[in-house]
Amino acid sequence: MAESKEIPSAYDLNAKWDAYLDLGVRRFVYSSVTGALAGLILFRSPVTRWASIAFGAGVGIGSAYSECSQKFDAANTLASKVDKLWYF
Prior knowledge:
The chain is mostly helical and 88 residues long.
């Protein structure tokens, strides 16, 4: 009888990277669109409009990176706690 060798969701790196990539792209696009709309409403110069789009894109990428970094660190600290339990 073959045992099912599924990887627990906490350790499935492919699923995590897919979720984080999705989060990053989604936040990049949403914040870029928000920056573009704000630029159209608030600014007249094309340079400042592009700057507002770039600022929005940076905010989106930064927030996605921050959340993904926290989730990866939480997984690492959880794994280290489990490892410590086995050693003591």
